[in-house]
Structures are given as C-alpha cells and as structure tokens.
Amino acid sequence: MPQVILLFSGKRKSGKDFLTDHLQKMLLDKCEVIKISKPIKSHWAKVKGLNLDELLSDGKYKEQYRLDMIQWSEEMRFKDYGCFCRSACQNAVDKPVWIVSDIRRKTDIQWFKENYSDVIRNIRITADDDTRKARGYNFQLGVDDVASECDLDDYNDWDLIINNGKNGQSLEEQISAILTLIQHVV
Ligand SMILES: Nc1ncnc2c1ncn2[C@@H]1O[C@H](COP(=O)(O)OP(=O)(O)OP(=O)(O)O)[C@@H](O)[C@H]1O
C-alpha cells in the first residue's frame, strides 16, 4: 500500500510525462509510475497488432490512434468507471509513492478517493495554448472537445497547481513544490 499517491492531470502537451519522468528520476526506487492509459493501450495494441512501446511513448504513433482509443475506452468506462484505474493499480508495484501521470476525469479522482482515500494528492499541470502548440498540440475534433480532455477543466480541488508554460516556474521549483507534498514520506 503506497503512503502517498500523486495524481497528475493536465491538458494535452501541458507536460505530464515530462514532469513525472523528472520526478521519477529523483525518487528512483521509492516510486512507481502508473499510467491509466496503459491497460487501454495494451488492449488496443493486442487487438490491432500494434507496437505497445510506441503507443506508450510520446509521438505521432500515439496521436494516430488517440481518437479510436478514446472512443473505445469511453464505452468501457460507461459500464464501469473504475475499470482502467483498477487494472493499472493491480499491476503496480508496492512502493511508498505512486505517481499516476494521466488523470483525466472526475471519475478517475473519485475512484482513487474511494479506494485510497486520504493518501491522495491532486496536482494540476497547466500551460498556455501557445506553449502547448509549440510542443505539438493541434486542436482535434473528437479529442480536444470531449471528456477525456475537458472533464477536469472546471475541477477546483487541487493540492498544487504547476504552471509549466510561459512565465512558469523553473523545473527545480516545480519539482521542489511537488516534493513538499510528499516530504512526510521521502
Ligand atoms: N518544461 C518543459 N520544458 C521543456 N520541454 C517541455 C517542458 N514540458 C514539456 N516539454 C516537452 O513538451 C512535449 C510534450 O510534453 P509531455 O509529453 O510531457 O506532455 P503530456 O501532458 O504528457 O501530453 P499528452 O497528454 O499528449 O501525453 C514533450 O516533448 C516534452 O519533452
């Protein structure tokens, strides 16, 4: 059972993978990185005969299948909103800190609250549109206007908000703010 679970969310190309990768490099064997999208991508790779590692990494390949994966996973969530969270956590190694790098919906947060209650810390990563565009974001109908991208836009209960865009803090300051949230553990 983890002592703290960091739930990271943010819009496309806000820098979720970038920041959580850096955090992982600092915490090393004290942490386990969990991606809710992993069980989705594993299933999709198996059914379609695709390369799972390519699908999990940042790049064009992932973007090619994003819309299909969103639509399929939406149907699955409709039947059981916790199915992917549960599956991702079942396969996670027991470490003091869990880093969940791709929280996208209120029901994701709800599931973690129901199952791990007070060890959760909610972190929102923000970045302005220009910065996101410079990182490869392009508005796509069916991707950027649906729940997977917008559901947390009006959520307000964050333990920490990190500006990872223009005029944002330095990486050191960002990581230091996150470490403050888990200083009782590491
Ligand atoms: N603070 C930063 N400084 C420099 N480059 C950054 C920074 N944050 C993110 N990037 C770069 O921007 C790109 C997008 O970031 P990242 O993949 O972490 O976004 P994401 O929120 O995980 O996106 P997605 O939702 O599409 O998976 C990556 O190439 C990453 O290296």
TrEMBL record:
<keyword id="KW-0756">Sterol biosynthesis</keyword>
<keyword id="KW-0808">Transferase</keyword>
<dbReference type="Pfam" id="PF04275">
    <property type="entry name" value="P-mevalo_kinase"/>
</dbReference>
<dbReference type="GO" id="GO:0006695">
    <property type="term" value="P:cholesterol biosynthetic process"/>
</dbReference>
<keyword id="KW-1207">Sterol metabolism</keyword>
<keyword id="KW-0067">ATP-binding</keyword>
<keyword id="KW-0752">Steroid biosynthesis</keyword>
<keyword id="KW-0443">Lipid metabolism</keyword>
<dbReference type="InterPro" id="IPR005919">
    <property type="entry name" value="Pmev_kin_anim"/>
</dbReference>
<keyword id="KW-0418">Kinase</keyword>
<feature type="binding site">
    <location>
        <position position="135"/>
    </location>
    <ligand>
        <name>ATP</name>
    </ligand>
</feature>
<feature type="binding site">
    <location>
        <position position="164"/>
    </location>
    <ligand>
        <name>substrate</name>
    </ligand>
</feature>
<dbReference type="GO" id="GO:0004631">
    <property type="term" value="F:phosphomevalonate kinase activity"/>
</dbReference>
<feature type="binding site">
    <location>
        <begin position="11"/>
        <end position="17"/>
    </location>
    <ligand>
        <name>ATP</name>
    </ligand>
</feature>
<dbReference type="GO" id="GO:0005829">
    <property type="term" value="C:cytosol"/>
</dbReference>
<keyword id="KW-0153">Cholesterol metabolism</keyword>
<keyword id="KW-0444">Lipid biosynthesis</keyword>
<feature type="binding site">
    <location>
        <position position="174"/>
    </location>
    <ligand>
        <name>ATP</name>
    </ligand>
</feature>
<keyword id="KW-0152">Cholesterol biosynthesis</keyword>
<dbReference type="GO" id="GO:0019287">
    <property type="term" value="P:isopentenyl diphosphate biosynthetic process, mevalonate pathway"/>
</dbReference>
<dbReference type="GO" id="GO:0005524">
    <property type="term" value="F:ATP binding"/>
</dbReference>
<keyword id="KW-0547">Nucleotide-binding</keyword>
<comment type="pathway">
    <text>Isoprenoid biosynthesis; isopentenyl diphosphate biosynthesis via mevalonate pathway; isopentenyl diphosphate from (R)-mevalonate: step 2/3.</text>
</comment>
<dbReference type="InterPro" id="IPR027417">
    <property type="entry name" value="P-loop_NTPase"/>
</dbReference>
<keyword id="KW-0753">Steroid metabolism</keyword>
<protein>
    <recommendedName>
        <fullName>Phosphomevalonate kinase</fullName>
        <ecNumber>2.7.4.2</ecNumber>
    </recommendedName>
</protein>
<keyword id="KW-0963">Cytoplasm</keyword>
